[in-house]
Amino acid sequence: MCGIAGVVFKDRKLHPVGDALTKMLNALQHRGPDSAGFAIYGGLGLEKNEYLLNIEIKERPGLLDSVKKTVGSTTPIKKEEIIPSVENYIIYRCKIGLNSFSELKPLIMDIDKIDDVIVLNGSHSFEMIKDVGLVKDIAARYDTPSKRGTHGIGHTRFSTESIVDRYHAHPFQSYIIPDITVVHNGQITNYWKIRDPLERKGHIFETTNDTECIVHYMANKLSEGYSLEEALEQSVKDMDGPFSYIVGTPEGVGIAKDQLGLRPGVLAENKEVFAIASEEVALREVMDTSEIDQISPGEVRAYTI
Amino acid sequence: MSEFEIDADHKTPREVNQILKQSAKKNNKIVIKNPNAMHYIAAGLTEPVELTIDGSAGYFAGTMIHGARIHINGNAGWFPADNMTEGEVLIEGSAGDGVGQGIYGGTVVVKKDVGSRTGEIMKNGTIIVGGNSGFMSGLFMMGGRIIVLGNISDDAGESIIRGVIYVLGDIKSLGKNAKVEDIDQEDKKELEELLTTYGFTLDRDEYHNFKKIVPRSKRPFYGKESEEG
C or N terminus of chain A, fewer CB within 10 Å? Predict the structure, then answer.
């Protein structure tokens, strides 16, 4: 089933986006208990060409050192943090500097070659938090409510086609362009038809999860010069199946819903906030309004700051 | 008339419905406070009580009720009044997809816009939408009536078999087996009585503007029309 949510604070100033998304996702917890995740944009404050890596590492002697050595062979580690997670894993977070964005994906692929290690994400302008379990537990583990930003997206997962682990928790990210994320409720039934041309262009797929397919599709469209809204509109025509998904970029968020309207999506907006979610109960966590828009079949809505 | 109040805050839908069904045996009027768009409120309620949901309801509000009159002082999610057999569900705000899905009787009123597939597979009963109704309204409708005071979106009356959809605004497109007919004096009288009852005030002239969507055939997919009794 899955629950999706997105929020934008229109004044471009920093707000408690982590707290807002935690409340929204907690209200949607009944839609999926397997994992949850957040992409909180605008609050990291990194310098140009600085990136934050989130790396899942199994608790085994020497493994963390191997990861540090691999990262250090490319660039010095500027700052680091270890967050204990569940099932004998830790999350190693480190801040690094690169010469350009194009070096990020190759570095991630190098780190991924180490057994029992996987890079959950690497970002410049947003903070990714995703893990297995319930929203409230994940939010407490990563102190999500304290995270500030301008906007963000989130997800609570009821898994269907792929396994439950941290990497398959949403949001999914693509490295075709910097800092694009997707959360998704539904299934893309023409998955291979979408994936094949993207792979032939050289884009790398790490999973067979359809949400990864959406994020690469969207990133590819944005890299071709589509606006967020135009890319969403084209995606609704190209994707088959029941779906609603929310896309996050450094500039804003947007939602798309399938042409038969088989997955839910609602929206509320006032002068300060733009909010989208699977259900009204989530919107009410960030806005005191009774005016709720139902996203229509095939409709897209976006807000950029 | 005895009244009872239920505070839904920090309760599960199951807990709220258990209290509701117990209290409905002893009270005529019940108010649910702090519903916070909770799903399944009043599911399967068969006592003929007057229930006020003081806020928004989530999915399946009033599903399978028989005889209750439910007033929602907010919005409703997907499938309000689903499979209702008798009673009334009145929604002051907007509602999601599948309003009145599969109803056998009773009346559903939504004051503002609704989502897609309004009244799908409904067998009887009445659905009134004060605003617009979305994609495939009246899908596989098998009886009853839908009245839309705003516009109706694409594929209206898709595969409609029986029943009627009255539309005051624009019809974006018709579904398979649907056609538009002019309304007659009897239709106007029926609409005026019904809409006035639920507080929709239209000028008498406006009733002329209603269009009526009905099935082209009772046997659109197989069999013969003559076989229909």
Answer: N
Q: How open is the CA angle A97-A100-A104, to the nearest 5 degrees?
A: 70
Condensed to tens digits (0 to 9), the pLDDT of residues A126-141 reads: 999 999 999 999 999 9
pLDDT tens per residue across span B79-94: 999 999 999 999 999 9
Q: What 8-state DSSP symbol labels residue A214?
A: H
Identify the active-site residue in A1, A2, A101, A147. A2
CB contact under 8 A, A264 and B96: yes
Distance CA B95, CA A34 (A): 29
Centre a 10 Å sphere on the Cβ of residue A175 and count the other Cβ atoms it contains: 22
**CATH label, A45-124, candidates 1.20.1250.20, 3.40.50.970, 3.30.70.260, 3.90.226.10:** 3.30.70.260
Residue range(s) of every CATH 3.30.70.260 domain in chain A: 45-124
Q: Is A213 a catalytic residue?
A: no
Contact between A268 and A5 under an 8 Å Cβ cutoff? The reply is no
Asked if B49 and B3 count as a contact pair (C-beta separation under 8 A), the reply is no
Name chain A contacts of B94, Cβ cutoff 8 Å.
292-294
Q: Which residues of A236-271 are buried (b: 16+ CB within 10 A; e: fewer)?
A: beebbebbbbbbbbbbbbbbbbbbbbbbbbbbbbee
Closest A-chain CA to B115: A294
The rounded distance, in Å, linking the Cα atoms of A14 and A8 is 10
Chain A contacts of B58, Cβ < 8 Å?
279-281
- Residue-range domains of chain B with CATH: 37-218 (2.160.20.60)
Interchain contact, A260 vs B153, CB within 8 Å: no
pLDDT tens profile B96-125: 999 999 999 999 999 999 999 999 999 999
Q: Which class does domain A3-43+129-304 fall in?
A: alpha beta
Whether B1 has a pLDDT exceeding 70, the answer reads no
